[in-house]
Specification:
56% strand, single chain, 116 residues, seven-stranded mixed β-sheet, four-stranded antiparallel β-sheet
């Protein structure tokens, strides 16, 4: 049974930091690229960050560059999203996803709220 379980969301003040985690099970984690998404009005889900299966490459949305860092631990089957200098516009549900060819798995999401 495939599972992606996100954690680490919460309420933080503007300028603060959070680290999201996504624990994977039920598939060969090290063979899948991993991503974090959030909803975007009119666009479905917006890619926030992506990391290759071996961690060799990363991509970021323009809104995340310089503030967010995606990483993974293939021994712990976990992907992380370190979010620094958070802004109110980062408030959203963040979803973890696994990709390999036509195979895609999604987590249930974790809420991040940035507010004073």
């Amino acid at each position: 049974q495939v599972q992606l379980v996100e954690s680490g969301g919460g309420l933080v003040q503007p300028g603060g930091s959070l680290r999201l985690s996504c624990a994977a099970s039920g598939f060969t984690f090290s063979s899948y690229a991993m991503s974090w998404y959030r909803p975007a009005p009119g666009k479905g889900r917006e890619l926030v960050a992506n990391i290759a299966s071996d961690g060799s490459s990363r991509t970021y949305a323009d809104s995340a560059k310089g503030r967010f860092t995606i990483s993974r631990d293939n021994f712990k089957n976990t992907v992380y999203l370190q979010m620094n200098n958070l802004k109110p516009e980062d408030t959203s549900v963040y979803y973890c996803a696994a990709h390999r060819g036509f195979s895609n798995f999604w987590g249930q999401g974790t809420q991040v709220t940035v507010s004073s």
